Amino acid sequence: MNIKKRGFTLIELLVTVAIISIISTVAVLRLNIIREIKIKNEVNTLANNVYFAKEKAMASGNSVIFKINKDYYTISQKSGLKVEEMEARRVNLNYLRKYGHGTEKFEFLPTGSVNGADSIRFSCDNGYNYILTVGVAGGYSHVSKEKIE
């Protein structure tokens, strides 16, 4: 008598479940790594644009205003009483969220120093806060990272 087997054995099902779980674990880890890279890129772009604003003020002899709010920041050049927003310098914040709802600004003077020196705190969904600090002396800027407790 010839009996045909239909279905899967327990071993086959366990191997299939193990393979699926390994693949899904790798996919989740990869997505976290990609998000971390995007966050780092946004933080670096923010820091580089603050430095750009300071250097632009020193090179042009005009004040440059770095204005940041909840969703984006702009870099504008001030010439006398006229303020011009620079093209391609309005940057959306995709991964960082600024604490508070107000607009904060730093005005870099032609000497490289800054009016309105302060620290701005950003929250992020990766378990860290980022703090942008712009100091009075020479418009020094620094981004630091702190773990959310």
Describe the structure.
- With 149 residues, the chain is α+β, with helices and mostly antiparallel strands.
- It has a single domain, classed as minor pseudopilin epsh domain (minor pseudopilin epsh fold).
- Helix content is 34%, strand content 33%.
- The chain has one helix at residues 10-60, and strands at 63-68, 72-79, 82-85, 91-92, 97-98, 104-108, 114-115, 118-123, 128-134, 141-147.
- Strands 1, 2, 3, 4, 6 and 7 form a 6-stranded antiparallel β-sheet that branches. A 4-stranded antiparallel β-sheet has the order 5-8-9-10, covered by helices on one side.
- The longest helix has 51 residues, at 10-60.
- The relative contact order is 0.14.
- The mean pLDDT is 81.
- Keywords: Membrane, Transmembrane, Transmembrane helix.
- Pfam families: N_methyl.
- The chain crosses the membrane at residues 7-29.
What gap, in angstroms, lies between the N and C termini? 69 Å
In the CATH hierarchy, what is the superfamily?
Answer: minor pseudopilin epsh domain
Give the overall average pLDDT. Answer: 81
- CATH domain topology: minor pseudopilin epsh fold
Number of helices in the DSSP assignment? 1
Helix content: 25-40%
**Main pleated sheet:** 6 strands, antiparallel
Please indicate the count of domains.
Answer: 1
CATH architecture annotation: 3-Layer(bab) Sandwich
Low-pLDDT residue intervals, each spanning 5 or more residues: none
Which class in CATH terms?
Alpha Beta
Number of strands: 10
Strand content: 25-35%
Rounded to the nearest angstrom, the radius of gyration is 25 Å
**General form:** rod-shaped
Structural class: alpha+beta
Order of helices and strands, N to C? HEEEEEEEEEE
